[in-house]
Structures
1.
Amino acid sequence: TFQADLREYQIKGFQWLHRLSVWGVGGCLADDMGLGKTLQAMALLLHRAPDGVGLVVAPTSVCTNWEAEIKRFAPTLNPVILGGANRAERVSGLKGFDVLIVSYALLQIEEELLGTVVWNTIVLDEAQAIKNRMTKRSRAAMALQGHFRLMTTGTPIENHLGELWNLFRFLNPGLLGSLERFNERFAIPIERYRDREASQRLKTLIRPFILRRTKNQVLQELPPLTEIVLHVEMGSEESAFYESLRQRAMAALEGADDGGDGQNHLAILAELMTLRRACCNSRLVQSDLVLPSAKLETFKDVARTLLDNRHKALVFSQFVGHLTIIREFLVAEGISFQYLDGSTPVAKRKESIDAFQSGVGDFFLISLKAGGVGLNLTAADYVIHMDPWWNPAVEDQASNRAHRFGQMRPVTVYRLVTRGTIEEKIVELHAQKRDLADDLLEGGDMSGRLSAAELLGLIRMPLNGA
């Protein structure tokens, strides 16, 4: 029995998944973040459990969450986390009502073992993890065999249409044709030429296999989300340091936009990374150079205000070094916090999350890629993004750790953006990236990938924006 009261839209989601499983085709549950995709997938796993073993593949950070949720809401299922020794023995001993939970990292390692089993139901959670067809992770996912394939992801398209093609290669192989044919029919016309007719044809083709509902459509009772950009002004020393790095990058990359995109892309991205670090703190570029950091000072002001008003906040950065600097400040001030990055062991992650949710810690410092998906952190009502990531979908996923089911208070999201720098250009790109996904899922205009010349254009902008 399923021990959760599903909302009406979740019941419809379960029914949709069940219909697809009867028809023998795969489906992508692409509901907005925080709408209970795990719950709907779990309901389907329970419904299909008498017919065989289920497999859930998820990011490392949420494997224990899957185990806990199954025990709570579907206790007749038996969750088994794959790990430790005797893995082959554990897999061969699985039976009906068992659900094997595997991280994407372990899927790569045990590709052969997991590929020999014909699973009754396969769930790829946060399926954007296999968006890149060239990765070992994608190859391992494609090797899985199953009667019904389900993906859950709030972001089925993050950067370009090639990602969508790869997701459908797992779900319903052959539906979108070969990659070459897909690029010819859809990707190039849509991304390069904004072809509305090609976009409509693709939308019609994939619509039966993707179900997406947004918070605005189904969750009137969810508290409001307010997003605020805090513009940070560098001081004279910090701005001089940033400008010297920008000038050095320009000199190093002279002529880099004249064809030969592959190598040039890597060289330009390396320089962009240095500039993005410099926007945060000089120590992230040159560890012995301690200049006043406008961003750190802004964070200190925000943190003290939040503490004075008894708020709790999630603090995200893509740079672990940036979190280390923030951590130093919190320790010096005697401010209680939790911490999570890619190196945090699974058991410690769960311990930190549970502690924060039960009231231990005013701030939770989280590296964007390690804790941006799958976590429930509704004890926080503020989210602070210390540095903008290239793709807004990744930031939105992170913000929705707080703005989701169970949140009773309005949520405020702060984005710290340094004026007149590469960060402002990244934020401008966010709108274009959102359009790419919205066009196929909801409606809007498309945007393509950035060429070497366009990337170089980001560096050419001086500090004053002239």
2.
Amino acid sequence: MKSDGRALIYMGNDGVSQNLLETLQLNDWHVKQTSNIDEAKQTMREHKLHVGLIELTCQHTESYLSQIQEMLQQYFQMEWIALVHSETGLNSSLKHIIAESFSDFHTLPVDPGHLLANVGHAYGMAKMKWDTVNIPDETDGLEQEMVGSSQQIQNLFANIRKVAGVSAPVLITGESGTGKELTAHAIHERSKCANGPFITVNCGAIPHSLIQSELFGYEKGAFTGANHKKLGHFEAAHKGSIFLDEVGDLPLDQQINLLRFLQEGTIQRVGGNEQIPVDVRIIAATHINLEQAVKTGKMREDLYYRLNVLQLCTPPLRKRPGDIELLAHYFFKKFSHEKNKTVKGFSSACLAVMRDYAWEGNVRELVNRIRHAMVMCENRLISAEDLGIDESSHHFHFMSLKEAKDRAEREAILNALARMHNNVTLTAKTLKVSRVTLYRLIEKHRININD
């Protein structure tokens, strides 16, 4: 997909497009003109676009409007503006789809000043989604659910890249359901052992009596029933990575064997005497506080420091509310083959509730509720009730004053930059701040002004 700078797509009839094209092209917009939904989808697959303009009339059928709404759900990263011929002549179907799926509307005939303001604002809003968001496609495999544009998730991505290039052990901390295993996969796939195996071990799921033989293997005749030699998880991960999930659940008396491997790089199979060298990257994860476990005697202090050379923390979903809509649309698309055919997406009211909900089960809970709603919802758009969220419950996270201020500040800067075509001097004058202050705020909010 290629980037076309300040580009947008227009879908409608040629009579409207002539004045529209002239107005936009005179102001340095590149317009991709299409006449139907299939052409529009093909254009959006080939070009990285930020804004879409769609002409809507009362002559459009319910079926056509439904297809429009489905297309807008698919290309949710873009901002969409409806072009209507009369604000007072809109029927209920048009009013509904505009309110639910479009960020703005413009009444024809074209008012150049008003249109350019609408498009500029939409462009600035869309860049917030495009420039920092991580939206993997269907071929990205194990990292598919690592979706987001928030500062917290961007920091995690940056730290993954840092730790992937070295061989030191990594400890991933975070609440259940925040994507610790996905983070481990991402580290492995960017490391020098990416072509080797990635072995996952849930330390809390192995019976106490089998831990040593499962991790390190055993020799033939080591115990009754050991009729042949078996390699353990560590040897299976040779030249690759081993992910020790819930390492804090490893019994205290079994931790010495893991410590010995970290110190010496060798393992000894149960029933054997040979020290076998194994080349493997250790990535461990836990949802408990291991420092507290050390203090209470449940974790060896020397093992803790051996594991905790590099530490990453996966942020809880309630700390990244700006990612919730992106995740919702992503999982809706991912599981679309499971949904009721009448379901086309989420209502705006539902998305607002989702942003404020506390998500104690994090991304895992989000996926569970969305998949349930996609099957059980009987309407075109999923509601909070379909997700099983009780709006009267206490499970809501409300934005702090600082979070609200930061969000408003970033949006104001993006809007001003879009109106001033990324001219920093004019943007600073518009916002009534110095250029130095504006550059500091641009850096603070990680805004890309090079596009």
3.
Amino acid sequence: MIGKILDGRYQIISKLGQGGFGTTFLAIDKKLPNNDQCVVKLFSPQVDDPDSLHEARRLFNNEAIVLNTLGSHDQIPRLLAHFEEDEQFYLVEEFVSGEELTHEINPGKKLTEEEVISLLKDILKILEFVHRHGVIHRDLKPSNLIRRKHDRQIVMIDFGSVKQLTSQTINIHQPSPLTVIVGTHGYMPSEQTQGLPRLCSDVYAVGIIAIQALTGLVAVSLPQDSFTGEILWREQLQSGQVSSRLADVLDKMVKYDFRQRYQSATEVLQALEKVTDASSSRKSSLGKIIIGLGITALIGIVTLGTLFKKDDTLEPYNIDNYGISIQRPKTWQPEERPDRITGNVVRFISPLVNNTDKYQENVNLVVQDLSENRSTLEQFTPFRLDVIKQSSPNIKIIQEGQQKLANIDAYQVTYTLQEDSMSLERLQIWTVKDRKAYILTYTAEPNQYSASLPTVKQMINSFQIIK
């Protein structure tokens, strides 16, 4: 391929890279006086007959039109040409001289909050333009972001839309082509791994890039919560390294459930402006407080906050007649209410924090005897899900899937509901053993749900079936 001239003008001089979706070459344009450099991308469609090749050609031309439109942005490479030779498709794009963002974001290196906010805004402003045209990038990662040499601006490259086209076997006689998932592990959210990318899938990827920059960890090494699927990145930071406002924005960007994420780059940019404004205001206010009140007053404020800190230390709680045990926070009061008909055993109730606290978070434990046709987890789970869905007309399932409880297979579902005109969020996990169902349910107001979730997960992890 080296030295070959394509379309009568583009001479290949070296290979830049090769992957499952095609090959990228550096070339020179022989029809320009300075032999300007350009990038040639070769794609080989998987087709079975002439009619399918015709359909692949039509789709490829449509994608080229989209890429040509995006190339009107200064920070997206211009599409110079697209053509077909020997039943293979080629894109010719502007060559961008610069370095991949992998030179700035690499293992062990941590960027400051200010640097990460600046980086986020740079990427999101380009992505905002992309999303405005209804295009999903699908493969955002540091190696697809170039720091342009002459002006140090970020350039976004390697859109996944053409990859999507050329990774599917096209057969016009089959209504549903089998599609290979486009993206990179670690940067893809759950819906994208199922072949259902959305605009907010790109938001997730940008959030992972930012977290990677803050923690110095590679994307695939970021720990995940086994119950919720959420990224556990805050534990990787040093105290005070990142403001809570920025951390909250990043948490929302990488939510496991796409419905809980920012839905577009524009929404994230608006949230980041508030972070920047709050940071400036906080610095100004802090200076005034120190001058006006002195160090002693500040110490008093810290001490006052310490007095009201919740004590979530766990202690064992055994229920001998049911042969089970669990650990509970000392401040969560047990309310025993055994009922063989409903299966209720005990409910642990959190304390009221202040006078405005309207709802006490709680964990309820139920043990139910099962009939023969519901005596396994596989049989009981569909029944239990039906019970949940029929318990209220406004149930909204957020997440569900297999888990572990008491070291045996279990099923977990998270959902929202309205109860007595109050919005609530609920996590329920159950397992089956010896024709008994063991069900743990955590309920809280949506704005308080995350605050007690780490404690609740400790309770769930501590649950044991002794007999």
